[in-house]
Amino acid sequence: MSLRGYMAVGMLSAVLLPWIAYFALAPAGEIVRLAVAASLVVGLLGFVAAQIGRHVIRPLAAMGQEAYAIATGDIGDSVLPPSNVHEVATVRAAFNGMRQGLAEAFGRQAELEAERRFILNAVAHDFTTPLFVLRGHLEGLSTGLAASPEQRVAYLAVCQRKVQHLHRLVADLRASTQLESLADTLVRDPIDFRVLVRQVAQAFEPAAEDYQICLTTDVPDAPCPILGDKDWLERGLSNIISNALRHTPVTGAISLALAKDNGRAILHIDDTGDGIDPNAMPHIFKPFYRGNAARTSGDGGLGMGLAIAQRVFQVHGGDLEACNRASGGARFTLWIPLHSSILENAPRPS
């Protein structure tokens, strides 16, 4: 019942019932009739006051206390008194919904704050390691610790490698800030995806040779036309191949196999490493995740490589997935839609 209904019933009862009792007790004396009527009025007013206190005042007072607690930062989980008054029950339900929403928002805020601290600590750690090595070798050069030309060349090589490492960390950090708006900033140009795959693979051939890893590429003879941002696609492919190189042992192998199927360009990148830990599989595409090897690689990145790669291919209308091969090692499979209209609209040779 609504609050207006409770008030109407109470007022009508307080007016009518005493008069009914007064006239019904006509045989009794005037004093008795007035006493009974007065008792009914008092009783009805007390009953109405009790009901208002139970169904209106108590719930509202409890909500006021909870609102004050929320204002001081204590969400609480106490149960508010129920009410049969429609308006109060509606306010109670809305208050509970607001409190639940605030609790969820505070929980998300706490998670974001914990994630922010984790990211800051991870970034600080990853920058500290190469900076420490770089400072030590520069001090060695400045103090003459590297006396021979061979030692100086070796020290400079380490310094150059650490500077490149810092450059990769900065590039990953910058890329991580661009992922959310990536879809709005892409430049979509006609690209032959097989040419892009070849170029990226060739860029990693010297590194593969240094680690005695056999890097092979198998692409179709026919063009694989796509629309995409060449720079971001190169970054995505490079991140996957770089990840494969880090997890493939010396004398191992990495193969890239590109094919066209059902309007898509599909690229399989296989390696002969130890594969992906099943416990890590659900997390490998999460930003800043590096599994059990976290913080142990002196030249590692921020754990953004695979997250960036997956996001790049998703905003191009494709995707990136990972699995373990039955023969051993990991397989990363990416696909991107083909655009045959690029070839159809291309100028014909005269």
Note down, in words, how this protein is organized.
- With 350 residues, the protein is an alpha+beta fold.
- Helix content is 59%, strand content 13%.
- The chain is built from nine helices and seven strands.
- It has a five-stranded mixed β-sheet with strand order 2-4-5-7-6, with helices on one face. Strands 1-3 form a two-stranded antiparallel ribbon.
- Helix 3 runs antiparallel to helix 4 and helix 6 (193-210) runs parallel beside helix 7 (230-246).
- The chain is elongated and about 125 Å long.
What are the key terms here?
350 residues; two-stranded antiparallel ribbon; five-stranded mixed β-sheet; 7 strands
Summarize the structure.
The protein has nine helices and seven strands. It has helices spanning 3-24, 30-71, 86-142, 149-178, 182-185, 193-210, 230-246, 305-315, 341-344, and strands at 189-192, 214-218, 225-228, 253-261, 264-271, 319-324, 330-337. The chain has a five-stranded mixed sheet, with helices on one face. Strands 1-3 form a two-stranded antiparallel ribbon.
Distance between the termini: 87 Å
- Please trace the helix and strand order, writing H or E for each element: HHHHHEHEEHEEHEEH
Overall geometry: elongated
Largest beta-sheet characterization: 5 strands, mixed
Helix content: 55-70%
Main β-sheet, spatial strand arrangement: 2-4-5-7-6
Q: Please provide the count of β strands.
A: 7
Mean pLDDT: 79
Number of helices: 9
Q: Low-confidence segments, ≥5 residues, pLDDT <50?
A: 292-298, 343-350
Instruction: Provide the gyration radius in Å.
Output: 37 Å
- Strand percent estimate: 5-15%
